[in-house]
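ingest -> validate -> predict -> emit
validate: passed (alphabet ok, no gaps, 227 aa)
predict: started
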Amino acid sequence: MQIIRRNFGLKLLSLVLAIVGWAYFRYANNPVIAARFDQQLSVPIAAINVPVGYEARFTEKEAVVAVSPQRGQPAVKPDEIKAVLDLSRVVAPLAPDTVMTVPVTIAPSSVVVQSLSPASVVVTVEKVEQKTFTLVVHYSGQAPNVVVRNAVTLSPGTAVIHGPAGALAQVTAVRVDVPIPANASQLDEMVRPRPVNSLGGEVQGLQVSPDLIRVQARFTNGTGTKS
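emit:
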């Protein structure tokens, strides 16, 4: 009896932990039994049935959903369900920057949803437009007249900007940034064109085609003084 009573608390705790561990490995790997418990999943939110020629923008990118799989079925995998914003009831034409609250729907409908967050999302629907810009070269680097450009060629010389009308209206130029080298040299590189606003900041949310421009430039030594 002394042996049993000695460290009785620790022995009892060890027994309980052993039973819990056995139960976990016995039942957690059984998909039929495990599926009886609610699952909490994080799934990406996507907009569907967006009117042709329009784009849907929203800040919430993921939904957290608790689901109860059907009895006797294996656990639901995250890639088996979708969180969607159905815009099939939206009829074009729309006013600029149309804002609406759209409920989040979980598909397929056979999944039993216990909770969902967010339940709805604020969506901005905006018309998509495009515009062609002549590319502008922006030089950066050395002081004027230390190294000067002798010739520069852009291929192609224009770019097409595609995106929401509101963002497109902010674009005043499409710029190709060319660094001026420290010494006379030749440049032949592929450079990404950037749509910029009147302050020179890049306008986000737009697609530029082509996404790379070939820049060929020749630089020569200058006088070393400002003119």
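Residues 31-35 have pLDDT under 50 and may be disordered.
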